[in-house]
Design brief:
With 398 residues, the chain is of the alpha+beta class. The protein has a domain of 104 residues: Beta Barrel (Thrombin, subunit H), CATH 2.40.10.360. It is built from three helices and 33 strands. Strands 10, 11, 12, 13 and 14 form a five-stranded antiparallel sheet that branches. Strand 29 and strand 30 form a beta hairpin. The longest helix has 55 residues. The relative contact order is 0.09.
Length: 398
């Protein structure tokens, strides 16, 4: 009996020691978990603090990160071609990187230059001419020769080009690949369909949008016609998949933001069409004032008009690709260009610049030390390519 009591006491003692050991292990594990959680909370708090400071930080100037000297050609203009610089004149065009490296150089003689851009592809032609030159940021893609005078052009990101060609009472709308091979052709009788005032190709080249204007009983009317060059359009008459009519309206501006979103801009209206095969009119907005200028980004459109606020000269209504207004921005800067980036937009002229977030925070409002011809946002945070008369500078706001 004594041996049993002794055994039970020993067993109870061993179990207590085992329990105490497990409890110590558990406390140790919990302490490690608490340390990890505390460290994570501290790290998240630091990240949040940095993020808040970043969002609230106001820049007062800029540093020139790099600079390359360039020679400005007489009568040359500069424009953005994705993250590169397209320089063009009546004698030719070339594309440069921010380091001043010329990726290609195209010579020609053009009096009335027409330029169409889609992402990193550009088409250059002459109004009433018969040659179209197609390039992207890296190389020349080809050239197209037409058999009738050119009135308008549009280009896709794949290098296809649609040209409006004049032939007496008939207008031809032809689509070519970059090598000049005819892909699609169609004729428009102005007395029946009207005159095409603008055209646009989707980035993938599947959709073509044409804005026609015509008179009906003395009233100006417009049609926006969508052509589908893919399998969906093959079984449709003249590849037409949808038509939208507008009374007493002129729609002179068409722009594909992506493969399924088209912005159509009139004197005082914005229509947004959605659909990558058969576009539909998904959103419409009317303005009580005339639209003075239109600017595009990858995800936004900005409509500039006279301000409805007496304290400011201009206002810009910004819409996203769903047709929803992001914000109205009032400003007084006499702009030469407006660009959009991921977090906000920039308004500038040769000497002044204003950069604002979509939330309305003014990140920068200052002047350039050297007159700027062109300002291009880059993938870097508040870093830009600035083109002047004598240099290509990469600047960083500070």
């Amino acid at each position: 009996m004594a041996d049993i009591k002794s055994y039970l006491k020993e067993k109870e003692k061993r179990e207590q020691i085992k329990s105490d050991y497990k409890e110590k292990i558990m406390r140790h594990k919990l302490q490690n978990v608490y340390r990890v959680l505390l460290t994570a909370v501290v790290v998240l708090a630091v990240i949040l603090l940095i993020f808040i400071q970043y969002k609230r930080h106001i820049y007062s100037g800029y540093d020139i990160v790099s600079s390359v000297a360039v020679e400005a050609a007489t009568g040359a203009n500069d424009m953005r071609l994705q993250n590169c610089i397209l320089t063009y004149s009546k004698d030719g065009a070339h594309c440069s990187t921010s380091r001043g490296v010329v990726n290609w150089n195209q010579t020609y003689e053009i009096q009335d230059i027409q330029i169409a851009v889609n992402q990193d592809v550009v088409a250059i032609a002459s109004y009433n001419g018969r040659e179209i030159y197609v390039q992207n940021t890296e190389k020349q893609l080809g050239s197209i020769t037409t058999n009738m005078p050119i009135r308008d052009i549009a280009v896709s990101a794949t290098g296809n080009v649609t040209a409006v060609l004049s032939d007496a009472d008939v207008t031809w709308i032809n689509t070519y690949d970059a090598s000049g091979q005819m892909l699609f052709t169609g004729q428009v009788h102005m007395q029946e369909a009207g005159y095409p005032v603008d055209i646009a190709l989707s980035p993938n080249g599947v959709l073509l949008a044409v804005s026609y204007v015509y008179l009906d009983a003395g009233m100006l009317k417009s049609n926006i016609v969508f052509y589908n060059f893919g399998p969906v359009g093959e079984n449709m008459s003249d590849h037409i998949v949808s038509v939208y009519s507008y009374s007493d309206a002129l729609i002179p501006e068409l722009h594909f933001a992506d493969n399924e979103t088209l912005f159509a801009v009139g004197d005082n209206r914005l229509s947004v069409f959605k659909g990558n095969q058969t576009p539909v009119d998904s959103a419409g907005h009317f303005m009580d004032r005339q639209i003075q200028a239109v600017f595009y980004g990858e995800k936004y459109i900005g409509l500039v008009m006279g301000s409805d606020d007496e304290e400011h000269t201009y206002q810009m209504d910004i819409y996203n690709t769903d047709g929803k207004k992001v914000r109205t921005h009032y400003f007084d800067l006499d702009y030469t260009d407006i660009f959009f980036e991921e977090d906000g937009f920039g308004i500038y002229n040769e000497t002044e610049c204003q950069i604002v977030t979509y939330g309305g925070v003014e990140k920068f409002n200052g002047t350039f030390s050297t007159p700027a011809k062109l300002l291009i946002p880059t993938n870097g945070t508040y870093r830009y390519i600035m083109v002047t008369e004598s240099s290509i500078d990469v600047i960083q706001l500070k």
